[in-house]
Design brief:
It is a single chain. The chain is α+β, with helices and mostly antiparallel strands and 174 residues long. The protein has 2 helices and 11 strands, in the order βββαβαβββββββ. The longest helix is centred in the middle third of the chain and has 19 residues, at 55-73. The protein is globular.
């Protein structure tokens, strides 16, 4: 998964947050970056859930990660969670419902409703981005065909993140 932030009119300060204690083989992998933009804190989590992993164990780990970050950074932070969840959000499945409801308890909502993985016989939305609508004023997400993988890249554009017209934050995953 590639992550980039660009086109900022303000200086971007970022730090890696080491969460290796929450990475469990065949359950979850996570990489996290803390970004400070105009004295606002944004936590970007990039998550991978292997398709063979136990969904319940993944949900427990994700809950531990979010609680840990809330304890350290307090509730004034903004989350953007992106990744390959290996749960098809185009189908009303038990796992999709559970993850959606679980993340809604943190005021996080998935924002794309288009296929992110397409094969000759199927399309699915197993990659997704979750964010807090109440804290981020304007956002758009697009699919980008990258032809490097069977997963399409997702392009997230967050405009006016702090009610200023001069800030434009972009995230590309894939």
């Amino acid at each position: 998964m590639e992550v980039c932030a660009c086109t900022l009119s303000h200086s971007l300060k970022s730090n890696m947050i080491v969460l290796s204690q929450f990475c469990i083989e065949k359950i979850t992998e996570v990489r996290t970056v803390q970004m400070n933009i105009s004295n606002e804190l944004i936590i970007l989590l990039s998550i991978y859930r292997p398709p063979c992993g136990n969904f319940g164990e993944f949900a427990v780990q994700l809950d531990l990660i979010l609680k840990y970050l809330y304890i350290i950074y307090k509730p004034k932070l903004k989350f953007i969670i992106c990744g390959d969840f290996n749960i098809n959000f185009l189908i009303d499945s038990n796992s999709a419902q559970q993850l959606t409801l679980f993340l809604q308890s943190y005021s996080l909502f998935h924002i794309n409703d288009f296929p992110t993985r397409t094969t000759k016989v199927s399309s699915s939305a197993i990659d997704n981005i979750f964010t807090d609508y109440s804290r981020i004023n304007s956002l758009k997400v697009f699919s980008l065909i990258n032809e490097l993988s069977d997963h399409e890249a997702q392009y997230l554009c967050v405009n006016n993140i702090f009610d200023r017209k001069t800030v434009n934050f972009r995230l590309v995953t894939g």
